[in-house]
Amino acid sequence: EDKVVQSPLSLVVHEGDTVTLNCSYEVTNFRSLLWYKQEKKAPTFLFMLTSSGIEKKSGRLSSILDKKELSSILNITATQTGDSAIYLCAVEAFRGGSNYKLTFGKGTLLTVNP
Amino acid sequence: EAGVAQSPRYKIIEKRQSVAFWCNPISGHATLYWYQQILGQGPKLLIQFQNNGVVDDSQLPKDRFSAERLKGVDSTLKIQPAKLEDSAVYLCASSLRQATLGEQFFGPGTRLTVL
User: Fold this and answer.
1) Which of A32, A70, B53, B80 lies most in the core, judged by the most C-beta atoms within 10 Å?
2) Nearest-CA residue of chain A relative to B89?
3) CB B59, CB B44: distance < 8 Å
4) Which of A40, A92, A98 sits opposite B102 (nearest CB)?
5) pLDDT tier at B98 (50, 70, 90 boundaries)?
6) How far is CA B69 from the centre of its chain?
């Protein structure tokens, strides 16, 4: 069974701090690793990392995939209160035919205090 | 572009009652997913449709849950009868096609409380 583990489960920081969120996985037929931000209800897509694209950056957010260690980190620099959310890591695995499956971790609840 | 629509947004029922959720994916998206997200956990895939066919329903509790996507567009998820442990947010997502490298777009979800 595919497994995705995130750490820490929750984190409280002050505005301006830098945070690093971790995600490790055990899946068969890995295809990609994705990070989502979940505020209120609907997860919104942040990054996708694959074997051909192991580092992504967008503004204050960046993410790296370590295929050797089967893990990824999500960095947020100069945090703002608007970064408060649950950050979900998901791994996409090939299931056969043209089928793929997304397995999510439990998420990291980030709280940024002013 | 309109996003994924879901209704209702909230539902409170008593155990053993029935409930149905509706999802309208983004126009043109062939693949539709239903996820269950229990508080403190990540979303768990319940069922995946490709057009009106089921691709994966391995984690759907088929004794009480059912889903359909008859015309390959909108979909309904039903629970009958509901149990306390079904309390969760039910997320619908869609993607343009199956192999879109994970670019699924999520709806706002339906928060179900079973008393």
Assistant:
1) A32
2) A41
3) yes
4) A92
5) low
6) 11
